[in-house]
Amino acid sequence: MPTAEDLALIRNVVDAAASSVGPVERAEILPAEAYVSETFFAFEKATIFAREWLCVGHVNEVPKPGDHVPLTILGEPIILARDEAGDVRVLSAICQHRGHPLFAGLGAAPDGVCRNGRALVCPYHNWAYRLDGGLIGAPGMQETTPVARLRERIRLPALRVEIWHGLVFINFDADAEPLAPRLTKLSAMVANYHIEALRPAHTLLLPALPWNWKLHHENALEPYHTDYVHKGYHDAVPSRLTDFYEFGPDDTAVFRTTGFRSAGADLFEQGGSRLPEIEGLTDEQRGRAVFVSLMPNFFAVVQPSSVSMTIIDPVSAGVMNARRLSLYPAAAIEDPAFRRITTEQFETNKILVEQDTVTVTALQQAYQSRFTPRGTLSWLEAGLPQLNGWLVERYRRGLERLGCATVGS
User: Fold this and answer.
1) For residues 24 and 356, what is the distance between their CA atoms, to the nearest angstrom?
2) Could you give the angle at which helices 213-221 and 383-401 cross, rounded to 10 degrees?
């Protein structure tokens, strides 16, 4: 339970955030404390990340029975796995004997790397589990508790899972409402891209990024900065060709589209080289990119040839980890020029990432200033009040659970 002093800070931030919602010509940015206060971040963890659906990966990261990927989200070691029956599961990676992580210590394994095997074995005492979480063996236990009895009551905890268009989401709240009904608008927008059939070809881990998780969404979603920060590298999708979409109180995804300057282009294209596109797209879809914030921890750029997705893992008020996956249709991966073209695109993407890195790092640092403004927004930042609307609603619910009322609630 927060202290009285902490509650006062949280309530002040939430009350002030009310002016961050509404028409873009009137909305302000969130108060600086929402980005830099560890007290407020702890409130967000309990209010948002412990209760909302969190993306952890894609089903085709574990294409075959026995495939499993160690991951970490909110400090929790987990396993994305496809069990022997072919079902995709997310399990705790904490051994239920003494609590040793299955992939740390002597069993250390890098996050995001797929391996295959019938058993998950704890490196501490060699307790072994199936990929459905059931206990297989526990050496040296027969004298105290027969393994048959242990198998009756011990298994790796399974997290609640929902799969949406091939994306795997978990929720730590057993009572949370289903995710899909809140994504109907986005589902209609991306259905033709068949994201569930795309295959991951590149994974990039980005640890300890020095900015708040909300700034990542804001910077990625608004195209106002791209003509300046990314001048010469983002020209395929000029900001003037951007459209924003209605966002309702029951929505979870904020998205925009930006048209390509020329037909069949690609955000990361270099030298005119192109990969086979996703089949079945309309002419309109082939002429634009979709930029999606699926709150609270997923961002994607959906293009005719690929989907680039970023999974956000907040660490503190000013630090987050990220895992980026690039998904392609099978025809693109099997194209003889795939490695050459994607290497060229990756070099362009690296420049864009570095430009964003220095920009958002500077922004996060400046939010410590006593002169940080509440901001006056451009029409190209119309997605920010939508993000804030999602946040403020959950902030208010969190304060209600703590027994606190808010202004305007």
Assistant:
1) 23
2) 150
Integer-rounded Cα Rg, in Å, for the chain is 22
- How many percent of the chain have pLDDT more than 90? 88
The 3-state secondary structure of the chain reads CCCHHHHHHHHHHHHHHHHHCCCCCCCCCCCCHHHHCHHHHHHHHHHHHCCCCEEEEEHHHCCCCCEEEEEEECCEEEEEEECCCCCEEEEECECCCCCCECCCHHHCCCCCCCEECCCEECCCCCCEECCCCEEEECCCCCCCCCHHHHHHHCECCECEEEEECCEEEEECCCCCCCCHHHHHHHHHHHHHHCHHHCEEEEEEEEEEECCCHHHHHHHHHCCCCHHHHCCCCCCCCCHHHEEECCCCCCCCEEEEEEECCCCCCCCCCCCCCCCCCCCCCCHHHHCEEEEEEECCCEEEEECCCCEEEEEEEEEECCEEEEEEEEEECHHHHCCCCHHHHHHHHHHHHHHHHHHHHHHHHHHHHHCCCCCCCCCCCCHHHCHHHHHHHHHHHHHHHHHHHCCCCCCCC
Residues 6+ apart with CB under 8 A from 403: none
Instruction: Sketch out the chain's domains with CATH numbers.
Output: 55-133 (2.102.10.10), 180-389 (3.90.380.10)
- On whether the CB atoms of residues 306 and 326 are closer than 8 A, the answer is yes
Give the model's confidence band at 355: pLDDT under 50 very low, under 70 low, under 90 confident, else very high.
very high
pLDDT digits (tens, 9 = 90+) for 147-205: 999 999 999 999 999 999 999 999 999 999 999 999 999 999 999 999 999 999 989 99
Tokens 């609270």 found at: 296
pTM for this predicted structure: 0.96
C-beta neighbour count of 298 within 10 angstroms: 21
Residue entry with tokens 């790796």: 156
What are residue 216's DSSP bridge partners?
none
* Confidence band of 405 (pLDDT split at 50, 70, 90): low
Separation between Cα atoms, residue 83 and residue 131, nearest integer Å: 5
CA distance 34 to 369: 13
Asked whether the beta carbons of 24 and 385 are under 8 A apart, the reply is yes
13-39 pLDDT, tens digit per residue, is 999 999 999 999 999 999 999 999 999
Q: pLDDT tens for residues 238-275?
A: 999 999 999 998 899 999 999 998 877 778 775 667 88
